[in-house]
Amino acid sequence: xxxxxxxxxxxxxxxxxxxxxxxxxxxxxxxxxxxxxxxxxxxxxxxxxxxxxxxxxxxxxxxxxxxxxxxxxxxxxxxxxxxxxxxxxxxxxxxxxxxxxxxxxxxxxxxxxxxxxxxxxxxxxxxxxxxxxxxxxxxxxxxxxxxxxxxxxxxxxxxxxxxxxxxxxxxxxxxxxxxxxxxxxxxxxxxxxxxxxxxxxxxxxxxxxxxxxxxxxxxxxxxxxxxxxxxxxxxxxxxxxxxxxxxxxxxxxxxxxxxxxxxxxxxxxxx
Length: 271
Prior knowledge:
Layout: H1 21-31, E1 37-38, H2 43-46, E2 47-53, E3 58-69, E4 73-82, E5 88-96, E6 104-112, E7 115-123, H3 130-148, E8 170-174, H4 178-205, H5 211-231, H6 235-242, H7 244-255, H8 258-264
Antiparallel strand pairs: 1-3, 2-3, 3-4, 4-5, 5-6, 6-7, 7-8
Helix pairs in contact: 1-4, 3-4, 6-7
């Protein structure tokens, strides 16, 4: 399978059979009003094809990255993976500029052979700072309560991860098949749209902060991205598909690139 050629991070992602395409389409459409600019992504990470499984029965694997930046958002990026019955993934993170007091937006939509793992959150830059969290959680918790009641609980969050999630972390495990498909259509899609709509409303309302506040936010953003890079659950899967060198470069240079972007001043917004 050969994917359509993509030359910039804003080019459409079109992966045959990828189940999360409607979610990416929703996100791209919602972001269009912010006049997004391409985000610098090396060509080898814009799209990649490989295989998994046995030599006798290889399974094609396709990975693509859609990304942009805007005035208030340092990096918006969607990692898209399709590997047939082995995996289908959308990992979508919005990284705000530290010049604005905003949380991260995070969505993990993962299909594996044993079920769907689905997570949504507006993740705090500093969970201990009520000036940062209070205005967000006040508007986010009603959305969480609405959708949580319709989903099975995903289980406890590891203690070390708790600083990086809000009380409105919507996290569920649901089965494959008709039951899971119905929950995705009836609950996960509108919940995704609600969380994203609230996030973009917060972006629209956000005003620049002073230098001291920006430095505090940047410090929190670096803690978050360092933790996510270290603990990325996709590391094993991507290494199996593409090897360690490509995977580590992708995790640190694209998915959670804040440290590299700060050092090399790649960010057009200048975090």
